[in-house]
Amino acid sequence: MSKLKTESRSWNFFNWYYFCMGMASLLALTIVVYIQDNISWGWGLGIPTIAMGISLAAFILGSSLYKKIKPGGSPYVRVAQVIVAAVKKRKVDVPSDHSALYENRQLDAGISTNGRLMHSNQFKTKQTKPMATSNSPRVEELKTVVRLLPIRAAAILLVASHSHLHSFTIQQARTMDRHLSPSFQIPPATMSIFSTLTVLTALPLYERLFVPFARRFTKNPVGITCLQRMGIGYSINILASIVSAFIEIKRKNLARQRNLLDRPTDVIPISVFWLVPQYCLHGLAEVFMSVGHLEFLYDQSPESMRSTAAALYWIAIAMGNYVSTLMVSLVHKYSGKKSNWLPDRNLNRGRLENYYWLVTGLQVVNLVYYVICAWFYTYKPVDEVTEIESGDEDVESDNNTKPLSK
């Protein structure tokens, strides 16, 4: 889909993609789990299998509607060739006339099927001779990937900052009043359903209310840019960590008042729904940051490497979980034995709120880092091709695809 088509659409693919993922998680956490616990594991495993079969059939039946691109060789080979050529030509002066740079549009048509990557002065390389291993589109392909890495790196700490929702927050929930009725309690692990519900609620509201509202001020067809959307997500996540710290302070104060600090298995008279705000804030942060991050990587990566860009998104999530594990291990090891922040058994005697303050401080530093990276980020320069020009002639791109001059 070209940029021109994207701006004229009335919906956002990535919002609905994330919405469908959230709906699948909601069904898995509620209906499927209920069937497994109350009916049988056979049906509990059979229903997801049937759903996968339906998904596969829909994928096959819809394959005729997909835009198929013929394989054009591995982009990693081109990246390696550019790096080798740049090293070999490191002492060669760059010509002042960019038209003197070697370019073969037919050879490199697969790099950008909706247009042509234009030359940029960022990350200057040495190239004067007509060598296929160092032509301009291939150099720009590598530059585009390098530009993404600092923005992508900022997502790692964000993932690490809310991984406690699947560990410490569940431990907190175990010590709180989880009754919805005298005979029914909310399982601690299902508290994450509130994040999912927030995502499912906020995504349509973002698409139908926030985007038209923001469009009035920004004049941007999509409301705000991906970088702005991600920045809002980072800010909301900081607020979520602050709320987490205050809720833990309140929980421990009540435990102290009722002399329950040394009785970790007893229920503290505080409703588990005090944990809902942090779940909702983390879900709202996902709506802005996670969806914006995925769309940004897809939009700003070379078309030949969009699958790699999607992989970078999931790699950032994996690295964030590893960083979270490292943080917890270091805090547990060096926060002392008598007043350990993250004790092994009795959370009431811990200092979990201090861990949340530490996470908040790291996120503030991460937000500053992200703002600096976003400020100096140069958008992918592309000359797009319109449908009218079926002969693949180049037309000038709009402001959103030109390099930003800071």
Automatic annotation (TrEMBL):
**Is Lyase given among the entry's keywords?**
no
Show the InterPro entries listed in the entry.
MFS_trans_sf, POT_fam
- Per the UniProt record, which residue ranges are transmembrane? 12-35, 41-61, 186-206, 226-247, 267-291, 311-334, 355-377
**Entry keywords, A to Z:** Membrane, Transmembrane, Transmembrane helix
* Pfam families associated with the record: PTR2
Give the superkingdom in one word: Eukaryota
Q: How does it sit in the membrane?
A: Multi-pass membrane protein
The primary site where this protein sits is membrane
Where does this one sit in the cell? Membrane
Query: What PANTHER family does UniProt report for this protein, alphabetically?
Result: OLIGOPEPTIDE TRANSPORTER-RELATED (PTHR11654)
Q: Which family does it belong to?
A: Belongs to the major facilitator superfamily. Phosphate:H(+) symporter (TC 2.A.1.9) family. Belongs to the major facilitator superfamily. Proton-dependent oligopeptide transporter (POT/PTR) (TC 2.A.17) family.
Q: What is this protein called?
A: Uncharacterized protein
**From what organism does this protein derive?**
Rehmannia glutinosa
